[in-house]
Amino acid sequence: MAAPAAEAPAPVAAPVLPPARSKDADPARLQTSPLLPAAGWSDLPPDLVRRVADSLVAANDLDCYMDFRAVCSGWRAATDDPRSDPFDPRFRPRRWVILDDGDDLLLLNAATGRFLRKRIPLLRRYHVLAATPGGFFVLADRYPSRAACVFNPLTGVLIRFAAPVPTKKVAAATVVFGRSSWPTLTLNLLCDSPSKSYSATPDMASFQEKEVQLPIDCHISLKAVRGGVYADGGGAAQGYRHGVSVIFEIFDLIQSLHVHPSMFYAEDLPVAGHANDHTRFFIVEFGGEVLIIIKLQRCVKVFKMDIGSIVPVESIGSHAIFIGHHRCLAVDTDKFPSVESNCLYYVERLGSSAYICMYNLKDEKDERISAGAVDFVKLHELFVLAAHRPFTIIQLLSSYTINVWDSQLPLQQGAN
C-alpha cells in the first residue's frame, strides 16, 4: 500500500516591514516660508547672474556668455551687451584658433583647451581675407565696395571700415586696439609683397600704404604675427615692436647657427628633402614673454627676447610649442593631457607624406610620434594634414600650423 503523500509545508509569510521613511516626507523639509516663495531661474538675483557671467568672460568663453544672456530678459538686463561697445576689451577673442574652416567652423580656446563647433552663415556674405591669431575674422564686402570688416565670431559683433581692401593678397592681419581714453582700432594687413603693409582705422577713406625699408623687417613682422605676438589687444605682448637693433640681433643669431637667413623667409612650402624643409623661424608669444623659435635639422633652439639682449631658454615648463611652415602655437599641457610638456612638435615631410615629430627640450632628442605616415596633400592651394579620423589633438594642432586661411578676394578676382 502506497504511503500517503507528505503534506506540503505551509508557506512562511514574508515579514511585513514598516514603511520606509522618506527624506522628502520630512515635514521640516517640505515646510516653505510664506515670505520666500519658490522662484524660477529667471528670478535669480542680478548680482548672482553677473557673477556667473563674469566667470564666462574671464575664461574668454564668449559664446557661452552670449548663450547665457539669451536665456531671459532678466539675465540680459543684468549683464552687459557686447554689441553696445565693440571696443570693450572684455569681449575680444583671445587665443582662439580655427582648426577647420569648412561649413562648420571648429574653434579651439588654446588657453583653456575647450573646442567649439560653430556655424556662421554670415561669412558667406563676405570675402574672408584672414583670421587673426586671437580669433577675429578680417572680411571684405562683396564687389563693388570691397569695404573692410572685422568680425568677432564669438559675439557676432561686426566693425565696418570705410576703406576698401587693397587688391593685394593678404598673408596675415592684426587688429590692434588703442589704449587711449578715446577708443581706437587699427587694422593692419601684411600682404604677399615682401616690402609693403597696409593699415586703416574704421573712419579712414583708404588704407595707408607703408614701404618697409628693410625686407628682413617685413619677414620678422610676419613671423611675429603668425606666432601670436600681436595678440589682438588681449595679450601682454600686443605692444611689441621691432627696433632696428632687435632686427640685427636676430640676424646675427641666425648667422651664429651657421644657417643662411634666406632659408627662414620663404613663405611657400619647400620641396621635400631640400635643406630648407628643416629650417623654420618664428617669434612666439609665451605667457606675456616673447620667444624666438628656430627649427633646424633634428634640432630646435629656443631663445627669449629681453630688453637689449637675446638669451637661450633651457625649459618651457608645462608648455609645448607646435612649429609649422606657416604658424607657431604655444599651449599649456595641463589643458591638453595628451601633449607632452617641455616639448616642441613639428611636421617632417617625406615625399607626399609626413610624420609628426616631437623634440624634447630637456633631453635634446627628437622622435617620430605618429603611428605611420600622415598624408600631406595640397588642397585648394593649401597644404593640409590628412589622417584617418578621429583626429588626435596633436594632429589637429600640427595641421593648424601648416594650413592657413587663404585670402578669398584675389581668388575671386582670378575667377572673374
UniProtKB/TrEMBL annotation:
Residues 1-27 are annotated as: Disordered. InterPro entries: KIB1-4_b-propeller. Residues 1-15 have a biased composition (Low complexity). Residues 111-360 form the KIB1-4 beta-propeller domain. Pfam families: Beta-prop_KIB1-4. This is KIB1-4 beta-propeller domain-containing protein. It comes from Triticum aestivum.
